[in-house]
Amino acid sequence: MILSGTIGYFVLESGQPPVNVVFARCVVGSLCLLAYCLRTRRFAASAFGTKNLALLAVVGLAIVGNWLALFAAYRYATIGVATTIYHVQPFIVFFAGALMFGERIGAARLAWLVAAFVGVVLIAEPQAAAVTAGYLRGCALAIAAAALYAVATLASKRIEAVPPHVIALAQMLVGVLTLAPFADFAELPATAWQWNCLLILGVVHSAFMYILIYAAYLKLPTSTIAILSYLYPLVAVLVDYLAYGHVLAPLQMLGGALILCAGLAGTLDFNPLKPRPKTRA
Question: Count of CB atoms within 10 A of residue 128's CB?
Fold first, then answer.
């Protein structure tokens, strides 16, 4: 999650348009993950029927769109603002699951949703005189990225007998195939540092980070993973401040706190009004 919080910095430092960044990330990340999957024989446990292939394509397109929208949001809004707004994704997953699969949404989660929505309004600051159309576009792109992530999450739940590392590899291969015609090869990095940023995004933030995450999923309870995932936006806000001097205004801080607290409470289905079970003395 700490690594995730530094993604925005390397995206901006690469100096490349979002399509080029995502394409490079997919090329480098897919090569690294392919080597890992071959070395650990992940393909031996995979089932590639028609249903799974279709779902892998949907997940890949959603994740690629997610990256494009989020990386573009960094350029219009700040890294900290875009990443914080992006964390409305748990609520989109809840409601999409309810609409598509009839999953139940409790009153507590509805209340947390309202709190998160208030947080988005506060962090976007639509009433502030300094707010530009570009800034609001960045906020909208962050929400779009969250919605695309929700699509990928729900579709991946339907994939059977395919290890998560292979699913991640499929996402990146889809990115390579779909973005190759749109990548601007005339606008390549001008410095060694910019090339290094793209390599870091592919090797560290794609292959290595996915391997770490999936290893953690096997060892940690869901509640712990949910709590630790909120290191991501906190680190992003810190990196945004240290690298570019961006400081959230007091109302934006309040809005960010509402989004993160409501998202965590909603994920854990926390209800402060629900009576706690009595413990025996």
Answer: 12
